[in-house]
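Lecture notes, unit on protein representations.

Consider one protein chain, 247 amino acids long.
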Amino acid sequence: MTQTITSDLVEAYSLCPRKAFLLMAGTGANPGPHDYELVIRDQAEANRHAHRVRLAEAGESVPFGGKDALIAGREVLADADLTADGLQARCDFLKKVNESSRLGQFSYVAVKVVGTCRASRSDVLGLAHQGLVLGKVQGLQPPFGTLILLGDRPCKVKLAGKYREVGRIIEILRAWAEAPAAPPPVVLNKHCPSCPFRDACLQKAEEEDNLSLLDRMTPKLLRKYHDKGIFTVRRVCPAVRVLDRCG
């Protein structure tokens, strides 16, 4: 059975392709979320609750009830679980806008609540994935979506330029789901300290003498070294002191 591509997998890929692969494969040691991730989840849940209360007080929000709820055209729908074409997206809220779609003389945009004060690239791509799935359901891709930042602060995000990037990620994830593949190479990055696979990846990087062990090693610089035939730390500088990128 082909695996459903979720917003969480798209966000994971945007942070690290190897992380998304390991989550899909369900193999290897996975010690669970890092403490930092748990804090962000708790903050997002508190922020989500605050936003839900505010909408309820204004009499705007109602629970999502499937396609019938969409056709009914309520102003705001909460906890919308959407599926289409092998994709799945759970939207915190859907907000009605005056753009015609197959639903009628209106359509919806996705609203995603986060637990941080600033929007990250993964937040934006996760929102774009929600917009993509919503577009397949209502027959109109929303040109924008909304991120609710910490403190119940809305941030409007243009999505038109993000759909192509999300589409490329979905193609890669689907290919992994449909046929056996080797995991992407280890490339340590700034997300590693909060990743549940950090210890396993660090161990493999050390075994490989991986270039990404070097501090300030970017993917662009990594490709530059690889093009020159340099794949290990000792080839760059035999006496270099490797910094712990996952600490």
